[in-house]
Specification:
The protein is elongated. The protein has one domain (about 15-100). The termini are far apart. The model has no long low-confidence stretch (mean pLDDT about 90). The chain has 3 helices and no strands. It has about 100 residues and is mainly α.
Length: about 100
């Protein structure tokens, strides 16, 4: 069997569709970076005033971190699975009880 030519490789529709998804997820990462800064600033100020992080925000922060990780896996071809909104939003494990001190 012969190897496909460059023209044949470039004409694969699925690769171009993936590029569109990749551009979409790169844009999403820019938005999530802003959200991370907002959460980090809020948690810092809250911790300074109350003495501990806002417990109700921790599960969302954890799932957002998992979401960003899923995006990075997709962008770097580690995974073929498209993250949210094409899959369910990542879940959390409720490991935040150790911060209750």
């Amino acid at each position: 069997m012969t190897e496909p030519t460059l023209k044949e490789k470039l004409s694969v529709k699925e690769k171009w569709i993936r590029l569109i998804f990749m551009i979409f997820f790169v844009l999403v990462t820019f938005l999530t970076r802003i959200l991370i800064w907002v959460i980090a600033a809020f948690q810092f100020i809250y911790t300074m005033l109350v003495g501990k992080p806002a417990k109700t925000l921790l599960p969302f922060s954890e799932s957002l971190s998992k979401y960003i990780y899923q995006i990075m896996e997709y962008l770097t071809y580690v995974s073929e699975q498209k993250p949210f909104p094409f899959e369910a939003w990542p879940t959390t494990k409720e490991k935040h009880k150790k911060i209750e001190k």
